[in-house]
User: Fold these one by one.
Assistant:
Number 1:
Amino acid sequence: MSIRAERSTRARSDAGGEAPRKRPPLRKVLPEIWTIIKPRKWLLALGFVLMVINRVSGLVLPASTKFLVDGVLVKRQAGKLPYIVGAVLLATAIQAITSFSLTQLLSKAAQRLIADLRMQVQQHIGRLSVSFYDATRTGVLVSRIMTDVEGVRNLIGTGLVDFVGGLLTAFISFFILMRISAKITLISFAFVLAFVFILQKAFSIIRPIFRERGRINAEVTGRLTESLGGVRVVKGYHAEDREAGVFAAGVERLYQNVVRTLTATSFLSLAATAVLGIVGAVVMFLGAREEMADQITLGDYFTYTMFLAFMVAPVFQVVNVGTQLTEAIAGLDRTSEILAEKEEDAEPGRTVIMGPIQGDVRFEDVRFAYETDKPVLHGVSFHAPPGTVTALVGSSGSGKSTIISLICAFHKPSSGQVLVDGTDLSTVRLNSYRSQLGVVLQESFLFDGTIRENVVFSRPGATEEQFLSACTIARVDEFATRFPEGYDTIVGERGVKLSGGQRQRLSIARAILADPRILILDEATSSLDSESEAMIQNGLSYLMQGRTTFVIAHRLSTIRRADQILVVEAGVVLERGTHPSLYALGGRYYDLYTRQHGLEANRFLAPGEGEKLFEELK
């Protein structure tokens, strides 16, 4: 039984991903936005300077209209025409150059921000506890790393600058319009203010929709990742159509979410168009009346009309850019949630840095529960001296893998202590301890790389001699050298191109190369046939020499030479001793051993009898 099999998970939503969380107020998110932008504040400041130059130069064309109409066309002052045209061309050139510079500067900076955030989130997730991984789908984590940060580019990219630039243009245009005609401007501005109020309400509705979209996308991605990873199981049970149905249901939920967003943004576009039309009609009517009454000139009228477009145009821009920024903030909410998760070594009590250890392991009245009301271990105590082999045997679900999990410091005891060389593991900096552990699990995990890359994963700086020695001891050389590419053969995702026995040999070679002080063998030979198992027994024997070793094995013949055997049932150590002493005792170990060898099977414990034994022991 693997370590993972005994872990219970925290509650999830029915969709199988993650439960919805309360949306934090925007005022609480703004400091986090500043935290992200702060390292690039000077870059962003330069972007805003370029933006101001760009927007001001863009106003030269509408401003020149008054001089063109009133001076050149009405008063026939042709000498001014070259200067007006020259100013427009110069302003256009400046606008083009600053636009190009903005795109180059901020777009690249935004992509750098995305890359940095992805690395930051991935590094943080990698330092979280095993309990967090137990409760969170892999696909959800992938979505957090790759998708949620994508929209954040608008916080530093052209999206934010365009948004602020539009507001700056509108602000300048408003004062120019006020100089031309305050009455028309105030009437027009009243309609714009009404639309701003609608925008504020709309974005407060759209933001949680974007958050929900991120959650749904993570759930769909998670299920798809699982389905693709377990394709052999899916095909083995002819479940392709069922999986397609599950995926289709998730995609439909995603579609409905997008439809809700499109409905909201379409309404905003409708309102923006209506505002623009109403304002245009008001200006057309009132402006024409004032021009005919000689309150403004014809040049003023044309200039007013053009500047009005610059003031109202950001209304449309707010709909598009504002939606992008809203999506970016929703993604930031989710990114902040993951970064707020406490790292394993972040606990205040973890201050001890372990030097080279001897491997003296002691459990003192250890109790543990994955869930408060469901205890798994009940006062487990034992001592494993340095260099000894301790075997854990018992029925499935008895607590063997939980004991191993506590030795690896994947979890902390509910009460009691796990001591290594007299140091409580709950006080230890985990990187200093786990660097001296070697683990060979039942489910041997391989990366989609070469044989060499998978073996040296435990010790990247190993020499070629050390690498070849580990492969020889684990009998990896016997199959690796038969491949055309040798040790550079690609093993495929999770080692799919290798047999179960070959994958296990790679895992053992990896552990040998790590040269650990404490060695964990969680059913390390379960994937091997009898012939393959016999071939690597010498390798395992070599690996165990001088190391404190803990072995979980259902094949009891593989642990007959253990220094001590712990028989674990219902979370208690029922029996302990060597193989001869436990066999002679004629108890639980005797039952297990003789059952495997076809003897006295009738003495095997019935379901639930382990719990009764615990009650009797109390």
Number 2:
Amino acid sequence: MGLSLVQSRALRGLDAARVTVEVHLANGLPSFTLVGLADVEVKEARERVRCAIQNSGLQFPNNQRITVNLAPADLPKDSGRLDLPIALGILAASGQIDGSLLARYEFAGELSLTGALHPVRGALAMALALHTGQCMTSLVLPPGNAEEAALVPGSLVYRARHLLDVVRQFVPAGAAQDLVGADGATPTDDGWCRVEPVRSTTRASSPDMADVKGQAGAKRAMEIAAAGGHSLLLTGPPGSGKSMLAQRFAGLLPPMSCDEALQTAAIGSLSGRFKMENWGQRPTCNPHHSASAVALVGGGSPPRPGEISLAHNGVLFLDEMPEFPRAALEALREPLETGAITISRAAQRSEFPARFQLVGAMNPCPCGYLGSATHNCRCTPDQIHRYQAKLSGPLMDRIDLHVEVPSLPNAELLGAPAGESTDSIRQRCTESRQRALDRQGCTNMALQGQAIDQYIQLDADAIKFLNVAATRLGWSARGTHRALKVARTIADLAGSKMTEVSHLAEAMQYRRTLPSRY
């Protein structure tokens, strides 16, 4: 009779809760029982583990009763991440490795039938959980996952390519040289190694704003949005350059801090979409307009992050915005305010960060040519109203900058010189955002409550101007506050300590309603 304990982690939203894999071997009818609220993928581990141990040249206790408990019992476990700890627990309980040496490690990895280790989701979340809990435990992960986890400062991460590479570290002295798999595989020197963090310091090449000719008003609005973290809606006829501008928006944003990069990478790792070459690059998510509300905000069982969380610290670009389902657009209202999304299900509740910058693009009417100087609009007033009404008032109130992108005449399009480069605009945006961070510790968009009155710093003339303008235009309290935040960003771009009338007047121009025929 033998008993062993192996530590691992299970994903619960963005958190990685500790799981203890308890393996008990006893005499009796041969069986392999897996308990502890295991999902289908985890239950299938019985066959993978059995074949992996046998094909690695190790002894599987076929003639004993095997019981594997995944504690805590009320925590759901999914995916194949527990294959490796289950296999090690069986080997420790059967005396083939020293179970006392396993206490200083946590393991995760999916086993192939040959014993090779395959990567799993959420490696960064595991490393962040150890870092947050100030645990000195070492992580043992498959190739790919180990490099991700090593990005967390102070982490102790080891990479293992095969089950034999792990077993060799915990067998009695002198026995490692006898390990040979059924296919002739043996532990290699590079199969087990300590992984050091390798962070990319080069900025990925992206489309340049110099490619966009004309559109000075739209470029100015994008500069303000990038400097202050504001949301943006581009409206114009087909082919005027809305998508072209939006695809270049992420290049205007300041470089990410280490904490921001870790948060964004952890969410990408949780969804299996993180790549090492994308480290430190602000993400741009561009879902198709057929995406559902669950695809945008997240959901499922267990809950998974949606596009707004995958765009955390980056850009969410919604092209053809009125074509999205109404429920999907309305689901964006709370995250635009709070910067987070809470997904509640009967079994569990998960919270994901969602501090993204929304960039939307739309036509002014169904045919797209309302107000165009070169094409006649074929839409009736009722069609225009129903099309524009797909974006509700509460959602439009949460979008800071409403910008028209007119079509350019062919002569101007072909003869205009190249515009200002992305690098020079990003430099101004970075300096402006740094002024805000030095003053208030957050971007202007993130100001809430009393902080708005404290840091906006309106002069006397601007206060009078705002009172008259807000009353005449019928702004809501939210609309007034958002105009103030945009004005503060304009003042930061100008290097002004106070928010003046000219800054407020420019901010007012960006809260215009959609063009209408009446």
Number 3:
Amino acid sequence: MPIRQLRPEIVNRIAAGEVIERPASVVKELVENALDAGASEIEVVTSAGGISLIRVTDNGAGMTAADLALAVERHATSKLADDDLFNIATLGFRGEALPSIGAIAHLAIASRHRKAAAAHEIVVERGKKQDVRPAALNPGARVEVRELFSATPARLKFLKSERAENLGICEVVKRLAMANPAVAFTLTTGERAGLKLPAQLGGPGGHLARLGRIMGREFLADALPVDIERDSVRVTGFAGLPTLHRPDTGQQYLFVNGRPVKDRLLIGAVRAAYGDLVPKLRHPLLALFVTLPPREVDVNVHPTKSEVRFRDPGRVRSVVAGALRLALEAAGHRASVAGGLAVADVLAKRPNAAGVGRMGPNPAGLSPGFAEDWQAPLDGLTAPSADATAAAQPPAPELLDRPLGAARAQLHETYILAQTRHSVVIVDQHAAHERLVYERLKAALAGGDVARQTLLIPEVVDLDTDEVAALAVAAPELEKLGLALEAFGPGAVLVREVPALLGDTDVKGLVRDLAREALGEGDGSLLKERLEAVCSSIACHGSVRSGRRLTPEEMNALLRAMEATPRSGQCNHGRPTYVELKLADIERLFGRR
């Protein structure tokens, strides 16, 4: 069959298939255009999950009549002034979105330039462009997309339910709103609950307020600020405490130069930073914004621009992981407030002796006199029947001002009950001490204080030549962790020493795993992770066990050690080591507030 050139309308439909996957893709492209135009207010209205209607209105810079005519042509853009694809500072730049949308739907664009006296409009009907005509509009732009995929009806079969498409649209708007807190967003999808996000003031406080509106009050209460810049890479945003986690990554938001992305390298950096602070198969909540020079990142590797490629991925991963670790260490022993609120909620819902839930006002029909008669037998309790002095000494006032307070009792030989001026703290003694021992062991590892075991007969491990070369580069770091190896010919390495912590380990299997990691884009953390896993097991067996009775001095010593140890708010398995009940919440349980 001879080669022929496709018709322009077919080319546009093919491009639309790459760029426009679902209605949410259209919303993403149009809202990004509004942001690039400098809009401070953006309104999105959809109907029937975006199939019948998508309307995006903004107060941005707007377009002239000449700009409108070019805007619907392929590869026409105002965002590449010097045609440099490696210096992209805008969200859109290819000039494909509008012509792609116009090829498969009814597209109407009305716009008025900020310096123009009148507005103009252009219509593209399934690939057929009409003439520019006068219109009525305030400065800015209004883009309407109707009957989406009407030119490619087969695509409709692959769409989800209207509700699912609405959720997809809402997620797109939320992500773009998170990266642009100074812009007001309004979304109306026909669902009962829309989305209205007022513009926020500049600075971290305004940004956190925007994130709280989207990620919830729970995140707002437990968010740790992140802000670090190193080697021209800056990481800002907020990360949730390790004790605030969920079973999926739906609340992990990652951005690169203001662009929402789903990047495996960044996800890996998050996983490495939190490490053993969260339980297995659980994921922390966070919103991180990575900013670096445009020439250091390629945003042109995916048609929807949802993936990026870094020029120096190792450097970016290191900065992101380091920023998160610093934030988590700065949090010290702090644990999520959700734990205390959950306890208070359980207590508030616990049925009373009559099988009734929360205590409310006196039942209807009971007079105050009846209540007084009922309480009469208890009159004698107004005065103590014996010496009511507490057996324990009153807590030292200075201890009440400490974050975890003063130890007051031990319950079930497992839980330490402590008191601060404004709360009650319940500590799991085994979980808390386990974390303290584990952190000491990890500090020894980090300081290079790793006991080594010299092999009686050095182990020869056969590898590929590229794996040998990769291990040779990583050898100095592995040496610090107790693994001494060297090249042994072109296709093998010789192992002379292994970390004593590993005991009777499979040396060949370990070295092969390390070689695969070194050959990929790993950061050489595999051996360290294995050693830390052993340390975790040692800490679990060597810590204070449940059922051991502690003296007041021992309990207070444990509380002080927790306050001085970063990450002590959760045990080695990611569970909280303590919960705090605020006095105000306790008073509400008893109707005092």
